[in-house]
Amino acid sequence: MLPLKELSLTLVKGEYFYPDNIITAPTMDFELGGVDLQDPSQGLQVKSWAAYIDGHNIWLSAADREAVLVLTRPGLLTEVSLAFDRNMRYTIVFVEDGLAYLYWYDTLTAGYAITPFEGIITPKLTHDDKRDDQSAASDILFVYIRDNALYFRAQRDRYGVEYLLRADVNGTLEKIGMTNKNRVQFKLLPIT
């Protein structure tokens, strides 16, 4: 979780941990996760997983695992981002026909939900701190740009509370993830 739900006052730039350091396209995202879906028995730092768009489909795969179809949508899919919770349940944010949707496991209904979010661009997900000793404080962060400002929502709030991180960003969100400085880092690209 972001302490105090705000950005630090001092920039502490670091190098992204693998696989957040991989350059990707908006249609593919990588996230470090456990040994298998719904299997957190070895923690969340076992192997790299990929979420990718293929036509109207969103798939999950890992190097030693056959791809799994997660979701099929009727519209044009243009962006995807992936994170796993502490139980290795996936959370996916995707953009369909220009509208962002969050596909997440709702513990109240014990099933997956799809929640639309209007007016946001470049949505990204990360599980902020995957270390086992940080399980009580860690969270899935849903980060995005809306009205030229950087915002986030957290799994612990069931993604229902929006927190402003910074106004007037004049950019898009390219990447988010933990760095070797043990900080969540945001990479913004200027709007040209």
Description:
It is built from no helices and 14 strands. It is mostly beta strands. The chain has one domain. The strands form 4 sheets. It has a 4-stranded antiparallel beta sheet with strand order 1-2-3-4, with no helix packed on it. It is globular, with a radius of gyration of 16 Å. The model has no long low-confidence stretch (mean pLDDT 91).
Count of separate DSSP helical elements: 0
Q: Kindly give the count of domains.
A: 1
**Stretches with pLDDT under 50, minimum 5 residues:** none
Which shape, going by the Cα principal axes? globular
Work out the radius of gyration.
16 Å
Going across the biggest sheet, name each strand in turn.
1-2-3-4
Q: Give helix % range.
A: under 10%
Strand composition percent:
over 45%
The structural class is: mainly beta
What is the H/E order?
A: EEEEEEEEEEEEEE
Q: How many strand elements?
A: 14
Quick one: biggest sheet? Answer: 4 strands, antiparallel
Average pLDDT number: 91
What is the CA-CA span between the terminal residues? 32 Å
